[in-house]
Design a protein that fits this description.
- The protein has ten helices and ten strands.
- It has 336 residues and is of the alpha/beta class.
- The chain has two domains: 2-116 and 300-315, 2-Layer Sandwich (Nucleotidyltransferase, domain 5), CATH 3.30.420; 126-293, ATPase, nucleotide binding domain (Nucleotidyltransferase, domain 5, 2-Layer Sandwich).
- Strand 4, helix 3 and strand 5 form a beta-alpha-beta unit.
- The two termini are 20 Å apart.
- The structure holds adenosine-5'-triphosphate and magnesium ion (MG).
- Residues 111, 115, 135, 268-269, 301 line the site of magnesium ion.
């Protein structure tokens, strides 16, 4: 079965082809980072317009590269939410128009389910699993007994982990998105020079909070002679990353213990973080849990994860009609 995936929930226009016989055949991503860089974050209206300009040419390009027409496809999968509604609507209307024109089945995919199932593009997933979803808009711990069944056990009370990376980077004058430069600079950081909070560790719930971290970083930076030296920046990056990773892993493994799972997974853009991947592997090994990190290209937004998730839905017989709507927020829900 050949499924075309479309992802336009935020600032990446992505189109991919998943073939259930051979795997991901294409995963094309047109990034809008340059467009939004001057504004220090994504400008929703600009994102929608850029999707509108880029999406159909990328679909055409993919079909040409694969020597296919729409009629050769078996289905279409489109991110329906959560995300920026204007941006989502561009993908959704395009998906509906293509499905109608070529008489193809269409399924709407929850973006976070896409991030979670991106793990299956790297290796077969082992169940029951505990998944740590850490992205630009989400920090959640999700129990997953099988594909299509999800139970959110907890999440952030304020900022998402990706937001914590992005806001710290902004304070340090680093480019957006902030995760990749912090990941890189933290490797040259001095352990022990700063100490940032890891709140709510004793809270019985599975909850995170990153707003205090942002304040602690700001106060530490303000106390330093200006402009900051390169070493100052590396040291702040080091401790910020350690504080975030400690907070995340304490909850992930607490939840894993509660539910007696066989495996743990990372999902979303922050899953590309080198230190998070390394520490998760160490902690999983200590507890005898299965863990394989997802390939980095499938961590941040991409349509391969949407095409694959679409195949799971279509293969299970699920279909959406042309009344499929977009949604700005909401937890991933069970559909099987
Ligand atoms: N190596 C890295 N280390 C830490 N964070 C990273 C790394 N690479 C990317 N990120 C972070 O990942 C986030 C982007 O992830 P993603 O594309 O999944 O978010 P989003 O789609 O905007 O949000 P959501 O998936 O919640 O809707 C950004 O906050 C970015 O800083
Ligand atoms: Mg995302």
């Amino acid at each position: 079965m050949k499924v075309l995936g479309i992802e336009t929930s935020c600032d990446d226009t992505s189109v991919a082809l998943y073939d259930s016989e051979t795997g991901v055949a294409e995963n094309l991503i047109s990034s809008q980072v340059e467009l939004h860089n001057n504004f220090g974050g994504v400008v929703p209206e600009l994102a929608s317009r850029a999707h509108l300009v880029n999406l159909l040419p990328i679909v055409d390009h993919l079909l040409q590269r694969q020597n296919l027409t729409l009629k050769d496809l078996d289905g279409l999968a489109v991110t329906a939410g959560p995300g920026l509604v204007g941006a989502l609507l561009v993908g959704l209307s395009t998906g509906k128009a293509l499905a109608m024109a070529a008489d193809l089945p269409l399924v709407g995919i929850h973006h976070i389910e896409g991030h979670i199932l991106a793990n299956a593009l790297t290796a077969d997933m082992v169940f029951p699993a505990m998944v740590l979803v850490v992205s630009g808009g989400h920090s959640e711990v999700i129990y997953m007994p099988e594909v299509g069944r999800y139970e959110k056990l907890g999440g952030t009370l304020d900022d998402a982990a990706g937001e914590a990376f992005d806001k710290t980077a902004k304070l340090l004058g680093l480019p957006y998105p902030g995760g990749p430069p912090i990941d890189r600079l933290a490797r040259k950081g001095t352990p022990g020079r700063f100490s940032f909070p890891r709140p709510l560790q004793k809270d019985p719930r599975i909850v995170f909070s990153f707003s205090g971290l942002k304040t602690a970083v700001r106060l530490a930076v303000e106390k330093l002679p200006q402009p900051l030296t390169e070493q100052d920046v590396c040291d702040v990056c080091y401790e910020t990353q350690e504080a975030i990773v400690d907070s995340l892993l304490q909850r992930l493994f607490k939840a894993a213990r509660l539910k007696h799972v066989k495996s743990v997974y990372l999902a979303g853009g922050v899953a590309a973080n080198g230190r998070l991947r390394e520490r998760t592997a160490e902690e999983a090994q200590k507890r005898g849990l299965h863990f394989i990190p997802p390939e980095r290209v499938y961590c941040t937004d991409n349509a391969a994860m949407i095409a694959y998730a679409g195949w799971c839905h279509l293969d299970a017989g699920r279909r959406d009609g042309l009344d499929l709507d977009s949604f700005p927020r909401g937890t991933v829900t069970t559909w099987r």
